[in-house]
Fold this protein.
Amino acid sequence: MTGNPDNAEYDIVALGVTKTFDSFDALNGIDLNLRKGEFVTLFGPNGAGKTTLIKLLSTLTKPTTGSLTVAGYDASKEAGKVRASVGVISHDPYLYENLSALENIKFFGEMYGVPDTAMRAKELIELLGLGTRMHDLVRTFSRGMKQRLSVARSIVHDPSVLLLDEPYTGLDQKGARIFTDTLKWLKSHDRTILMTTHNIDEGLQLSDRVGIIMSGKIVYEGSASGLNNDSFKKLYISHVE
Amino acid sequence: MRSDTTLVSAKICEAGHPASCLLSVIISTVTMHKIWAIIKKDIITELRTKEQFTSMLTFALLVIVIFNFAFGFAPGVLNLAAPAMLWIAFTFAGVLGLSRSFALEKEGNAILGLLLTPTDRSLIYFGKMISNTIFVFITGLIIVPMFVIFFNYDFLDTLLPLIPVIFLGSVGFVAVGTLFSAMAINTRLREVLLPILLFPIIIPVIVGAVKLSTQVLSGESVFEARSALQLLIAFDIIFLTACSVVFEYVIEES
């Protein structure tokens, strides 16, 4: 995941990225490249810097040093263009509890400047299996349903890059399985996806490449093919503990 | 996904003409569409939860009733203090509503969903500010008739001239209040922090509004207190502009 790549080939390029909060280094020199259409998962313990990295890539915060290019745009100087090219799914749904599913997706569609938002919102909600609940308030939804609806929110503007920040948190087994199917569907549509998670089973199953982040640094990277749960768990423990 | 009008306004802005840039941004279709989307979302949410409106209205009515009883035995004092009482009830009730404004955005971290969109932060500010002004102004429109009845003022002579005063006061109060409400969103003591930050800044609004209300309640024209009217209008314009610029730095992480 290191090097200085040709940006045309890559949707995410991070070079020497650091992020410091007061005297605490949340990220300590991250180099990360994701080819277009690639699915990469970063594993790491709490406090390793996973969420900070996602916040930087989604322009919610700025790096202290280093350069970040997302979908061909400089994340520091062209934040608006990066936001228009990126979708974010987090453990929080980022949805309005007192709006219906349809009202939520229509609202976010309007904020992304999507033409004919009503049609697009209906299509997405039905595609994600929530068609019968589209007029119900989000506060009445289960955790799994909210997470699927947050997928609709994140792709309403058809972004080329998806950033997933521990999306499996709080999902039961059934919810996790449905969510994995949704991610497989997203992957099949040539989106570049970066996921951070604790969930080794799902992460290995979906990814082209995997990495381990620890104390704000990527300490391992490699192809996901040929890795099984047990071998990766051993690898993970050897890097994290 | 941007309309032609937005592209035109972007080009004018790049050319470096601040006044033309501001105007073109204001009239841009997408700009107005996004501001309206935020206002519509807030109105729908408020119609369902009734959190802001109910708390503001109940609190304001209680304050007016308490003042009415407290000063009921001293009619001379009552006439002098009535305009101040109206604005005390109005602003304290408004603070309750403003503190709920961004608290609702914090539920489910919806505010982050909004910040992830390619929307200029000043548009988010204007959307929130306008919806807050609507709620505060409507509360004012309900409080004032109650106030007029409780304090035995002439209904027709005072009610209509008070409406523009309430509007101008609401805009200034909410312009600053929306910014501080956003600032307090990530603090544990946001309900306490908001009035502590807000009231010292809005003293000119309260002074101007009380003076204009005194004119109206004593049966005189607001134009006779021209300096108070100018103060209120100037405050509204200056703080609306300043807060829309500063909002970006308040709402985003460093």
In short: Chain B is about 85% helix and 0% strand. The first helix of chain B runs from residue 4 to 14.
